[in-house]
Design a protein that fits this description.
Blueprint: E1 2-4, E2 12-19, E3 22-29, E4 33-39, E5 42-49, E6 52-56, E7 60-63, E8 68-71, E9 77-80, E10 86-93, H1 95-100, E11 111-114, H2 117-130, H3 136-149, H4 159-170, H5 179-186, H6 190-201, H7 205-220, H8 228-234, H9 240-251, H10 255-263
Parallel strand pairs: 1-4
Antiparallel strand pairs: 2-3, 3-10, 4-9, 5-8, 5-10, 6-7, 6-9, 8-11
Helix pairs in contact: 2-3, 2-7
Length: 267
């Protein structure tokens, strides 16, 4: 089986940034298929544009913009790229990075897809910081926060929490549901759902739904056929102005500026 060294990913690397035990790469996927292989360090894959199919020994993931995968070191996997442009952002983590911050290197185990919108918004922030000249401290801080938000194991959740998680992520209109409607769909009392939601999702329901909307909006920014007004509408924002305000609070720049950074075009 093929082993990939630090910073080596299949495709055309547009940017490679090495700092403080981290290797960040911005890569266009150019091969239609990549056979089983593994990497010498743990790493994140974050799909920026296009689609890719990735399989490991347990699962197969059909990934599009905004999908976030984590691979522990030497976890074998393969890739299939459908026709069209596909681009990914990777953060490869040397064991020394964990050591310098007194973090165990098994905070996330195995090969997994991470669905929490906070983690995805964090990856978009790290991607933004990777384009800045002086970003070392910011990237380390954001990555530590990402790990802290990712360590809860969903296997310990009650069945209704797993149903709610699937509903929030799989239903296009889930951000429009009221507390009462969500509680009814997962068969728990609204008061119980409201009180216990932060225990399992680490934030309030309203904030989680807002994060889901912003994450979906960021996923759509790379699509040239989507205007800002159409993105705002499809993601459940009251109007484009509301979308821009919410976006700037989280990403510290306008959606138009982020689109320019992401794609190189204003449109």
């Amino acid at each position: 089986m093929i082993s990939r060294q630090t910073g080596q990913f299949y495709g055309q690397t547009n940017q490679c940034l090495q700092q403080n035990g981290l290797t960040l790469t911005d890569t266009e996927y150019t091969l239609p298929e990549v056979d089983w292989h593994y990497h010498e360090n743990a790493y994140f894959t974050f799909i920026l544009q296009g689609h890719v199919i990735e399989g490991n020994k347990k699962e197969t993931y059909h990934c599009g913009p905004g999908d976030l995968l984590f691979h522990h070191w030497q976890d074998a996997h393969y890739n299939i790229k459908p026709p069209g442009f596909t681009r990914g952002f990777h953060i490869e983590i040397n064991p020394g990075w964990f050591e310098q911050y007194d973090l165990p290197d098994n905070l996330i185990e195995g090969s997994v897809r991470l669905k929490d919108p906070r983690l995805k918004l964090q990856m978009y922030r790290i991607f933004r910081e990777s384009k800045e000249l002086d970003c070392k401290a910011a990237i380390d801080a954001l990555l530590i926060e990402l790990f802290n938000n990712a360590i809860v194991k969903p296997e310990s959740y009650p069945a209704w929490v797993k149903r709610l998680d699937a509903l929030l992520h799989d239903d296009r209109e889930s951000h429009l549901y009221s507390l009462k409607e969500l509680a009814s769909k997962v068969d728990v009392h609204p008061v119980h759902l409201s009180r216990t939601f932060p225990v399992y999702f680490k934030t309030r329901l309203s904030d989680y739904q807002r994060q889901l909307k912003l994450s979906k909006a960021l996923n759509l920014l790379g699509d040239r056929d989507q205007t800002l007004s159409s993105i705002a509408a499809s993601c459940g924002f009251a109007d484009q102005s509301h979308f821009i305000r919410q976006f700037k609070q989280v990403q510290k720049m306008t959606p138009l500026a982020y689109r320019k950074m992401l794609t190189g075009f204003y449109f």
